[in-house]
Amino acid sequence: MPRTSKKKSDTVSAATVAEPSASVDLSSLTLDATNGGGGGDETEPTPLTAAAASKPKSKKKKKKPASTVAGPSDPTIDYPALMSAFPITLRTTNAKGRHSVAREPLAAGVTVCLERATTFIVRTPHLQELCHWCMDPLTGEDGKEEKVTSHFACESCGVAVYCSKGCMEEDARDGHALTCGTVGKLKDVAERTDVDVDLLRMVVGLMARRVEDLKEVVVKEGKVDSDKRRTPFKCVGDLVHHRDKNDAAFIKVVTAAAEALHEIMPKDQLVPVPDIVTLACKVNTNAHGLGDSQSRNKDVALGLFPLGALFFNHSCTPNCCFVGQRHGQLAFRTLRPVPKDEELTVSYIDLYAPRDERRLNLLLTKHFWCKCKRCTMPIDKSPDRYLNGLLCSKCRKGVYVIPPSPTPESIMTPPTGDLSTRTYTCDTCGDALTHTAAETIFARADSKYSEGISLIRQRRYPAARMTFARLIQSHDPSASSAAEAGPLLHPRHVLLLNASVPLMNCYVYEGDHNAAVALNRRVLAMVEGAGAFPPNAPEVSDYWFNLGELLMEQAGEHKKAKKMTLQKKCEKEGKQAFRNCWEIRKVAFGEGHAKTAAAEKRM
Ligand SMILES: C[S@@+](CC[C@H](N)C(=O)[O-])C[C@H]1O[C@@H](n2cnc3c(N)ncnc32)[C@H](O)[C@@H]1O
């Protein structure tokens, strides 16, 4: 398998470096792209609901493309009615499974779906940070502003906290009472069975929602104006679970946890143990992280959004993004103008990654082989060739193209055949580089990168700074020492971006704002020019926001040193950076979103 340099587990929150600084964690997406998942290749629905259990069996199964065949939908759910308020048409085809297309030409920044989670939870590390009903923050931005001292806690479970009595009462009415007696006991179950407590909280929330839905019709079809309306539990029945593709060890511990839930939960909420396990698999495959409503990037909540998961396929060049909103809602919004009948897609993963890395990520976490346009176009025409390629040592213009793995099987197994004769060719001058030479360069760069990450974990920031800086410098074609060297990582190589983010935060940590600003600008040029992100990508807005903050810090330093001209220059550039951020966010998040407002406030 060609090397792609960055392993998912190697990513480190840049925020861990920038302890006292204003820098954002740029290493994670606003919303963890754990959305969607599962999908078409499952054909057996889980009999969690009476409706699903009594579903007629499909007569003759046609042979369809394995990864995109839609499972049958519950015939009692009128999905077009549920989605009728949005300018989309729902379709099902053999090639794409269930999906949605634009019903009419759409401008950039149009909400094409707004869904309130069937259930959502505030994630355990953030339990005290936001209201468990409206999701407004209970503390100031990253603790910088004054802490809210008087908030309201549920005295029975000791888990749920709220920003107001009103929110506490709303949550009680909405079903908190059903889970209140259980949630306090889940930590113990999680510890005993070695299952993530948040997974258990989600599963318990879903089982309670099922009971709640049986009592009343929660959805008023076609109406989307209520903050409080949730997607009904029965839609969860249509989600794929990929249970068979999960690790046996995972199924074993979740089964033990499900048995433990049978000891502690009210009988009327329980479903059989195997159904609890299936629910857990559905949560794992389909649950969606929600970012905080401020300018910081961290997944503070987790929700299950069946409509979004059922009708938005993944693309590595998506025309939509998803945005977390108050009250556990998720909006899907267009990032660019979309012509009538074009499929609406989102990305489930980080897009600044080479093709193999993206496909492997989707295969391991979502269990499908991506067939989007970007993943299927010839590699020598695709921007993907730069993200894992090497700059040609002969012409210094082209890139030695590393071909991607052709099949899911080949991506999972080490490369075969005589590697000593394998070569990679420059797309510009045709020069050839041996596989062995390429591997040596990748191995060295990987090892330096891992060393830097390890130093960060040890909080040895000056040493980490030096390691990352050397790595980047040694692959900078304009640096004289590097120019002498052989092939270099291409300037758009993913490892250089991955090393730049922690390096930037090391600079901030050490108070070197000049270096941080210069690097942030280089990173912006990289992410804007690489063709990896779609227009108006939220990720790019984060780099602009970070640049704005760095420039304002710099302005503050100039002010202290009474360097008025420099101060004004930095302020002007800082405001422009916030404006650039705002321009993107008003499309991606919408004008009313807190993250858009955070940029607007400062521009
Ligand atoms: C969240 S579901 C999306 C809805 C799905 N089309 C369905 O009918 O249920 C994700 C599933 O859709 C399919 N899918 C989505 N995006 C895909 C892509 N880019 N390439 C191949 N299959 C994809 C895969 O089968 C995946 O498991």
From TrEMBL:
<feature type="compositionally biased region" description="Low complexity">
    <location>
        <begin position="45"/>
        <end position="55"/>
    </location>
</feature>
<dbReference type="InterPro" id="IPR050869">
    <property type="entry name" value="H3K4_H4K5_MeTrfase"/>
</dbReference>
<feature type="domain" description="SET">
    <location>
        <begin position="86"/>
        <end position="349"/>
    </location>
</feature>
<dbReference type="InterPro" id="IPR046341">
    <property type="entry name" value="SET_dom_sf"/>
</dbReference>
<feature type="compositionally biased region" description="Basic residues">
    <location>
        <begin position="56"/>
        <end position="65"/>
    </location>
</feature>
<protein>
    <recommendedName>
        <fullName>SET domain-containing protein</fullName>
    </recommendedName>
</protein>
<dbReference type="InterPro" id="IPR001214">
    <property type="entry name" value="SET_dom"/>
</dbReference>
<dbReference type="Pfam" id="PF00856">
    <property type="entry name" value="SET"/>
</dbReference>
<dbReference type="InterPro" id="IPR011990">
    <property type="entry name" value="TPR-like_helical_dom_sf"/>
</dbReference>
<feature type="region of interest" description="Disordered">
    <location>
        <begin position="1"/>
        <end position="74"/>
    </location>
</feature>
